[in-house]
Amino acid sequence: MSNQGQIIVLSGPPGAGKSTIAERVRAEMPELAYSVSLTTRDPRPGEVDGKDYHFVSQEEFQRRIAAGEMAEYEEIFGNLYGTSEKVIRQALAQGHDLFLDTDVNGAEQLKKRFPEGVFVFLLPPSPKILEERLRGRGTEEEDNLRQRLDRVRYEVGKAGNYTHLVVNDDLDKAVDEVKAIITAARRRTERHQQLLAEFLAL
Ligand code: ADP
Ligand code: 5GP
């Protein structure tokens, strides 16, 4: 098990800063594999297919579920979101750590399968700032915004399932903290059995 990669899941309520932080961590830790989720929702202005999400139709998503191609999926705000099974398997088989952004239910499904994974919950410094940031992002109609704000309590209620919690106040600090958590996970003793065995064989 020495060189096997592990999963690093980032969750948090809408507006917590997951996309912003994921983009920075991906740029600053290029060795990390990243799972681009599938979704049936429409792209927001500026979102790029294949980078932010794989944008697919309901029919295509349903076909993939039926074919067993989804490691986990959830319906959120009337759209399906999910992670490809193949992406997880390939990354871990190649010994890469895999970074993913899922909602709390997706994370729960993954934790059953990867109990040794790293599960990071992200929160802004206060509910007020969360709402300001979500409104400031300017991507949502009022109805969608309300839906997202209504979901905050539900998501935060599941924060106890996570191994780490990061407060996204100053962005640079939050990015550094997520990177530090990933680095610390790589230093877990059980990931270095091969090196230890070499020394024990002296
Ligand atoms: P999520 O992906 O969790 O829904 P986003 O990454 O889209 O959240 O962030 C929501 C909004 O808050 C965006 O407009 C983003 O630019 C802004 N934002 C994220 N982190 C910070 C921060 N530390 N300080 C100020 N604004 C931030
Ligand atoms: P948004 O529409 O704001 O990009 O994302 C809405 C929600 O979908 C967020 O809570 C986000 O974490 C979640 N999400 C994004 N990708 C996935 C995924 O692959 N699986 C699951 N279960 N949730 C996801």
Name some characteristics of this structure.
single chain, 202 residues, alpha/beta, Rossmann fold, 5-stranded parallel beta sheet, 4-stranded mixed beta sheet, 8 helices, 9 strands, 44% helix, globular, binds adenosine-5'-diphosphate, binds guanosine-5'-monophosphate
Q: Structural class, please?
A: alpha/beta
- What is the helix/strand order? EHEEEHEEHEHEHHEHH
Write the CATH fold name.
Rossmann fold
The set of bound ligands, ions and cofactors reads: adenosine-5'-diphosphate, guanosine-5'-monophosphate
Q: How many strand units?
A: 9
State the domain count: 1
Radius of gyration (Å)? 18 Å
What is the level-2 CATH architecture name? 3-Layer(aba) Sandwich
Strand content: 15-25%
Mean pLDDT, all residues: 94
Q: How widely separated are the two ends?
A: 21 Å
Query: What kind of sheet is the major sheet?
Result: 5 strands, parallel
Instruction: Estimate the global geometry from the Cα principal axes.
Output: globular
Summarize the structure.
The protein has eight helices and nine strands.
Structure in words:
The chain has a single domain, classed as P-loop containing nucleotide triphosphate hydrolases (Rossmann fold). Helix 1 (18-28) packs across helix 7. It has eight helices and nine strands. The strands form two sheets. The protein has a five-stranded parallel β-sheet with strand order 2-7-1-8-9, sandwiched between helices. 28% of the residues are buried. It is globular. Helices cover 44% and strands 19% of the residues. It has 202 residues and is of the alpha/beta class. The chain has helices at residues 18-28, 58-66, 85-93, 104-113, 127-137, 142-156, 171-186, 193-200; strands at residues 7-11, 33-34, 38-39, 54-55, 70-76, 79-84, 98-101, 118-123, 164-167. The longest helix is centred in the C-terminal third of the chain and has 16 residues, at 171-186. The model has no long low-confidence stretch (mean pLDDT 94). Bound molecules: adenosine-5'-diphosphate and guanosine-5'-monophosphate. Residues 11, 14, 18, 37, 41, 72, 74, 76, 81-83, 101-103, 105-106 line the site of guanosine-5'-monophosphate.
